[in-house]
Design brief:
single chain; alpha+beta; eight-stranded mixed beta sheet; 26% helix; binds coenzyme A
């Protein structure tokens, strides 16, 4: 599935991941985030949930990605209800390509896929409490902060758990 879209500053192609993208995605992950994963982990998410794993490409170069997992969890909204939820595991856009609405488009596409392709009723993610760009992005799309996970990250920083009810109207 792919679609080209003009965002401020140029032409960006949004498409679902291909196996050949994984090394580029891993490289972006290492440049942008301290939470890094093995090749096998990226490969597994690409195989299991390909329609919720999107990349943004320009001039044949991958510049951003989002990847997700589908889980059954206790609802973040309804007490003691088990729900099918989409977990946004990782998202990043290379520094030179930020503030062009690429991250926003990646989240929109992943969230739509989680609802429409995978039947998820909620989406959620963890974000560092000091990661204002990401928090603002998620708020813009309707995510709300439901809880704080103390010392969630390896370096001891806390995480906000942000959640969104699906399906969405955007
Ligand atoms: C978070 C991240 C993916 C955002 O990507 P991006 O493509 O630059 O974001 P967008 O241009 O789509 O921004 C969409 C909205 O997010 C918010 N936002 C993004 N960057 C922001 C910043 N630096 N400061 C404040 N708000 C910001 C704004 O609300 C923006 O909407 P606007 O353009 O109407 O103001 C990017 O900053 C990044 O890769 N960060 C490092 C990795 C990371 O932190 N991932 C999240 C882990 S939970």
């Amino acid at each position: 599935m792919q679609e080209s879209q003009r965002v401020s500053g140029g032409e960006i192609l949004f498409r679902t991941v291909k196996p050949a993208d994984i090394l580029e995605v891993m490289n972006i992950n290492r440049i942008c985030l301290p939470e890094n994963y093995t090749y096998g982990f990226f490969e597994e998410l690409a195989k299991e949930y390909p329609r919720a794993f999107w990349v943004a490409e320009t001039n044949n170069k991958v510049v951003g990605y989002i990847m997700c997992r589908v889980e059954r969890i206790f609802s973040k909204f309804d007490f003691l209800k088990i729900r099918r939820a989409g977990h946004i595991v990782s998202i990043a856009v290379l520094p030179n390509y930020r503030r062009k609405r690429i991250g926003e488009e990646l989240v929109r596409r992943a969230v739509h896929a989680l609802a429409n392709e995978y039947g998820c009723e909620e989406a959620y993610l963890e974000v560092r409490v000091n990661n204002n760009p990401a928090i603002q992005l998620y708020k813009k799309l309707g995510f709300v902060t439901k809880e704080i996970q103390r010392r969630y990250y390896a370096d001891g920083e806390d995480a906000y758990v942000m959640v969104l009810k699906l399906p969405v109207s955007f």
